[in-house]
Design a protein that fits this description.
Length: 312
């Protein structure tokens, strides 16, 4: 309606009654038009913004869930709730790809190595490098599988180490651990490393690496995957927002795509409800955590523990 557009342009300083009088229309007629058109315009603008937030996520098609989209919209000034966002995403076919049903086994707890007590069960870390959690999952490619090992900081949920291989030998988990040790400062005796009872984490080489740098091993109870819920949660997020729906041609493509997701999306952009809807890197910065990045990133020098780890 021309009157409404003119009021917006004039900044409403003339008033609706004055503008209607000059245009020769009634105020009731103006409001009837406004009530019929304005909600449709707002709905269209909101739908466009939801589509933009859902789809402008690199060529790999990362997709945030409707709750995270809702938080982003609210921070932009939209008065919406998660039910409305979910409805629009459903109507526009923007829901996340559902998980696949088949899961190759990645945990073999039938071994003769020591099973370490669960030190993380009641631990609530208050800073970085107090608790690390580790896990292994499979990655489906077009004609085969590869395996991904990760290490997360239990305080910030940040992925501090990861590795990919076409096997489940201990070297896979050790590579992820080496990256974590090289990326963070570790105080001997102050850090707990928690994992399941898989042979990759219980074997002598892995435990020796932990003990050499002063990290205390911890393991979930048998048959209790929720003991390692934080790592399991990351794996679900990875599958839902990156892996499922992809068709990686080979390991090189899978590794490049997952590296981009971990480093550029998960650690730096993805909002976490447990972190007051902040991304892990932003959460660490706001907590004024002590220098936790590798010296190569922070411009300092590595601690003796990190130097020792690099020499292993």
């Amino acid at each position: 309606m021309v009157i409404h557009a003119e009021i917006v342009r004039q900044g409403d300083h003339m008033g609706i009654e004055r503008m209607c009088a000059l245009a020769g229309v009634s105020r009731a007629g103006y409001y009837r038009h406004w009530l019929a058109s304005q909600p449709r315009q707002e709905e269209t603008a909101l739908r466009d913004e939801i589509q933009r937030l859902s789809l402008v996520r690199r060529k790999n098609g990362y997709r945030d869930g409707y709750r995270l989209i809702t938080i982003q919209l609210q921070r932009m000034g939209w008065a919406v709730n998660h039910k409305r966002v979910a409805r629009i995403r459903r109507e526009d076919n923007l829901l996340c790809v559902p998980k696949l049903s088949f899961r190759p086994p990645t945990t073999d707890s039938r071994h003769g190595w020591r099973v370490w007590p669960n030190l993380a069960r009641h631990l609530a870390p208050m800073a970085v490098n107090q608790l690390w959690v580790a896990d292994i999952t499979y990655i489906r490619m077009s004609e085969a599988f590869v395996y991904l090992a990760v290490v997360l900081d239990g305080f910030s949920r940040r992925v501090v180490g990861w590795a990919m291989a076409d096997h489940l030998r201990a070297e896979l988990a050790l590579s992820a651990l080496d990256m974590a040790i090289g990326n963070r400062y570790v105080t001997k005796g102050a850090l707990i490393h928690h994992s399941d009872q898989g042979v990759q984490y219980a074997c002598g080489d892995y435990i020796a690496r932990l003990e050499r740098v002063g990290i205390q091993p911890s393991m979930s109870r048998a048959g209790c995957p929720w003991d390692n819920a934080m790592a399991e949660s990351f794996m679900r997020t990875l599958k839902r927002e990156e892996v499922n729906g992809q068709a990686y041609r080979d390991r090189a493509e899978a590794e490049a795509s997952i590296e981009a997701f971990i480093e550029a999306v998960y650690n730096r952009q993805r909002l976490h409800s447990a972190l007051a809807y902040l991304a892990p890197e932003e959460f660490e910065a706001k907590q004024n955590a002590p220098s936790c990045l590798a010296a190569s990133e922070a411009g300092g020098t590595l601690s003796p523990v990190a130097i020792e780890a690099h020499s292993l």
